[in-house]
Write a structure and sequence with these properties.
Blueprint: H1 3-11, H2 27-32, H3 39-66, H4 71-81, H5 85-105, H6 109-119, H7 127-137, H8 142-164, H9 169-190, H10 203-212
Length: 222
């Protein structure tokens, strides 16, 4: 096993303290409306989230950075593209923590530059950009970086669904196994997308994320 593989496991471990446990990224709204209520219905939501928002926003941003896009430019695009306020805040909260952890555990000149941009207010510090900067500096190949990032996001969301719906632990593992095929498809699909595809997200997902901030009772920040 190469050094970058061990580092990638640490970077995407569910125990990494980025605060992902505090975010549903919109699925709690579906729970409140009774549309997500069990293993099957959450699986439908998760598949849609992978094929839409994770693919056309996060994964595409990671690919663009690997291909030479500027950190500042991608950060600005993500801020503009993430329309729901809570989703922008979730991305920057988790991204900020990842920048802090990365600076201590996986330091690099590019990461230090991104942190300086964020610290001076010239960038917001989005999670996929921070991840891409760290992964590329570690020498992680793009397909592996994409698969690891997407599956880490799916794992966090599934763990949150297990306690929010609630679901059993075995149900969570079945969901993760089923989601693996969707993650693999997303990695393949993102390689064929263009800059014009960036931010092409289902309105239903964005509406649910916007409604969440006005939900009367909730467990999650987003």
């Amino acid at each position: 096993m190469t050094q970058y593989q061990l580092a990638l496991q640490q970077l995407t471990d569910s125990a990494l303290p980025t605060g992902a446990f505090a975010h549903s990224l919109g699925f709690e709204t579906y729970i409140d409306r009774g549309l997500v209520r069990d293993e099957a219905s959450f699986g439908v939501w998760l598949a849609a989230f992978i094929s839409q928002q994770l693919t056309y926003s996060d994964a595409l941003a990671i690919r663009f950075l690997y291909e030479g896009a500027t950190v500042a430019g991608l950060d600005s695009l993500l801020t503009a593209q993430l329309l729901p306020r809570q989703l922008r805040e979730a991305s920057t909260k988790m991204g900020g923590r990842l920048l802090e952890i990365g600076a201590e555990i996986f330091p690099s000149a590019e990461l230090a530059e991104y942190r300086e941009l964020v610290g001076s207010g010239r960038a917001a510090g989005h999670q996929p950009v921070a991840f891409a900067v760290v992964a590329r500096s570690l020498g992680v190949p793009l397909p592996e970086a994409l698969a690891a990032y997407l599956f880490a996001a799916v794992t966090s969301l599934t763990q949150n669904a297990v306690r929010a719906i609630p679901l059993g632990q075995n149900a969570g593992q079945r969901l993760l196994r089923n989601a693996a095929a969707d993650v693999a498809s997303a990695v393949e699909r993102v390689s064929h997308l263009t800059p014009d595809d960036f931010g092409a997200v289902s309105p239903g997902l964005e509406i649910s994320q916007t409604r969440h901030e006005r939900q009367r009772a909730r467990m999650f920040m987003s």
